[in-house]
């Protein structure tokens, strides 16, 4: 009998810990307060995410992708792992989107639509971390955590699938190629992935914050990163494009020091000059010289004005020295990424969800970062917010910055990432539904 009771207890515990909370319409009293209902779902999502088996499953996916890194628009193997896992979960998806992208949907298949995004690409870097799951591809490595981003979004898919009959709308899961090239998001948008989508959320792992800390900001969060490349060519035999280039470089520095608002903190850097003889011939003036560089700014206004001004300055200086020039600001080789500007309402949502999932002490509003992210392109189309999830673990030596050959991820944060993603979407749809009831 004693045994029977303990067996019964076990069954009850299993049911309690694995079954999703009842939907509001089917709840026993039918009048669960919204806040307590959200709390119930938050708790359920945390319970699922904290399950050891769930964490191990995510770790294995991340490691499988880590072993076979693929750079922008070559993520065929990575997207096949994503599709395999989605099929196992009976989640519908569209593929290929923008070459290698995958777009899955969970929910009612009706509006409103809310999107969650993960990037999938690796970098052309030789991994120098010696571990069991080191990259098996020479010269390529997941050194920005996008392997972990994919695992976190698949984790969110698993959680949301279990809550599918309670979703008051549809969650769109965007697995995007080529973030590092600054082109993936643009291509996905061209394929219509955010058409009819009301809000979008993105997460990026960072080592600048401790593991499990969420960091974000309303408004201007990350800088826009633009590139310019100019070819300056002599108009006559007496013109010297080296002089035109020299004057351009000096004048470009004045844009920041004399023209820009010092509180706006833009940056203009000339990083390449190419011209003249490469074999010690010192008495031949080259017909043409190229210069190239980058510029960064936090506000969209300053960013676009900066690009315009760089063009004007180089063209004017070329004219002064009897040269013509072509300035390229949108080359395929050097794509520009606009500033990442978080929508204030969606930012508030991120803060509320983070408070519930990682706690108030681990939710921070930060200063802007100089880095850039092609998530910015989605934010140019629809409201949304990008947040960072810290994964610095000094004890385990996980402190190396992204794009370092020693970069490594604290896999303990993967379930937290999934829980955040899932709750961003679930709660957004839940709040939307309740607000629409209020306005009827
Ligand atoms: Zn990166
Ligand atoms: Zn990245």
Automatic annotation (TrEMBL):
<dbReference type="Pfam" id="PF01546">
    <property type="entry name" value="Peptidase_M20"/>
</dbReference>
<dbReference type="GO" id="GO:0046872">
    <property type="term" value="F:metal ion binding"/>
</dbReference>
<keyword id="KW-0378">Hydrolase</keyword>
<keyword id="KW-0479">Metal-binding</keyword>
<feature type="binding site">
    <location>
        <position position="144"/>
    </location>
    <ligand>
        <name>Mn(2+)</name>
    </ligand>
</feature>
<feature type="binding site">
    <location>
        <position position="146"/>
    </location>
    <ligand>
        <name>Mn(2+)</name>
    </ligand>
</feature>
<protein>
    <recommendedName>
        <fullName>Peptidase M20 dimerisation domain-containing protein</fullName>
    </recommendedName>
</protein>
<keyword id="KW-0464">Manganese</keyword>
<dbReference type="GO" id="GO:0010179">
    <property type="term" value="F:IAA-Ala conjugate hydrolase activity"/>
</dbReference>
<feature type="binding site">
    <location>
        <position position="180"/>
    </location>
    <ligand>
        <name>Mn(2+)</name>
    </ligand>
</feature>
<dbReference type="InterPro" id="IPR002933">
    <property type="entry name" value="Peptidase_M20"/>
</dbReference>
<feature type="signal peptide">
    <location>
        <begin position="1"/>
        <end position="25"/>
    </location>
</feature>
<keyword id="KW-0732">Signal</keyword>
<feature type="binding site">
    <location>
        <position position="403"/>
    </location>
    <ligand>
        <name>Mn(2+)</name>
    </ligand>
</feature>
<dbReference type="InterPro" id="IPR017439">
    <property type="entry name" value="Amidohydrolase"/>
</dbReference>
<dbReference type="InterPro" id="IPR044757">
    <property type="entry name" value="ILR1-like_Hyd"/>
</dbReference>
<comment type="similarity">
    <text>Belongs to the peptidase M20 family.</text>
</comment>
<dbReference type="GO" id="GO:0005783">
    <property type="term" value="C:endoplasmic reticulum"/>
</dbReference>
<feature type="binding site">
    <location>
        <position position="204"/>
    </location>
    <ligand>
        <name>Mn(2+)</name>
    </ligand>
</feature>
<dbReference type="InterPro" id="IPR036264">
    <property type="entry name" value="Bact_exopeptidase_dim_dom"/>
</dbReference>
<dbReference type="GO" id="GO:0009850">
    <property type="term" value="P:auxin metabolic process"/>
</dbReference>
């Amino acid at each position: 009998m004693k045994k029977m009771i303990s067996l019964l207890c076990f069954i009850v515990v299993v049911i309690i810990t694995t079954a999703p909370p009842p939907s509001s319409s089917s709840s026993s009293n039918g009048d669960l307060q919204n806040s307590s209902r959200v709390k119930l779902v938050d708790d359920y999502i945390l319970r699922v995410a904290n399950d050891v088996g769930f964490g191990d499953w995510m770790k294995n996916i991340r490691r499988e992708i880590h072993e076979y890194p693929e750079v922008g628009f070559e993520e065929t193997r990575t997207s096949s792992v994503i599709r395999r896992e989605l099929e196992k979960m009976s989640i519908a998806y569209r593929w290929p989107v923008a070459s290698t992208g995958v777009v899955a949907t969970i929910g009612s298949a009706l509006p409103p639509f809310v999107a969650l995004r993960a990037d999938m690409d690796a970098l052309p870097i030789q991994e120098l971390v010696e571990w069991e799951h080191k990259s098996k591809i020479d010269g390529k490595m997941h050194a920005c955590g996008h392997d972990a981003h994919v695992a976190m979004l698949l984790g969110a898919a698993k959680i949301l699938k279990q809550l599918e009959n309670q979703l008051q709308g549809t969650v769109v899961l965007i697995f995007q190629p080529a973030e590092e090239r600054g082109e993936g998001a643009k291509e996905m948008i061209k394929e219509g992935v955010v058409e009819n989508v009301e809000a979008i959320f993105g997460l990026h792992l960072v080592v600048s914050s401790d593991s499990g800390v969420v960091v974000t900001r309303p408004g201007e969060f990350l800088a826009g990163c633009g590139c310019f490349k100019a070819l300056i060519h002599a108009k006559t035999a007496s013109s010297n494009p080296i002089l035109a280039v020299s004057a351009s470089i000096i004048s470009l520095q004045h844009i920041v020091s004399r023209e820009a608002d010092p509180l706006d903190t833009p940056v203009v850097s000339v990083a390449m000059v190419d011209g003249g003889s490469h074999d010690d011939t010192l008495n031949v003036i080259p017909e043409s010289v190229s210069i190239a560089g980058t510029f960064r700014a936090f506000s969209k206004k300053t960013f676009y004005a900066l690009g315009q001004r760089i063009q004007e300055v180089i063209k004017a200086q070329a004219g002064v020295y009897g040269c013509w020039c072509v300035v390229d600001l949108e080359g395929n080789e050097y794509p520009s990424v606009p500033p990442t500007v978080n929508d204030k309402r969606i930012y508030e949502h991120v803060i509320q969800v983070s408070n519930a999932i990682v706690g108030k002490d681990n939710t921070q509003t930060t200063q802007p970062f100089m880095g850039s992210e092609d998530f910015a392109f989605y934010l140019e189309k629809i409201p949304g917010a990008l947040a960072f999830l810290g994964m610095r673990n000094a004890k385990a030596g996980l402190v190396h910055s992204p794009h370092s050959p020693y970069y490594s991820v604290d896999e303990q944060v993967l379930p937290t990432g999934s829980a955040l993603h899932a709750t961003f979407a679930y709660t957004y749809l839940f709040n939307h539904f309740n607000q629409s009831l209020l306005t009827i």
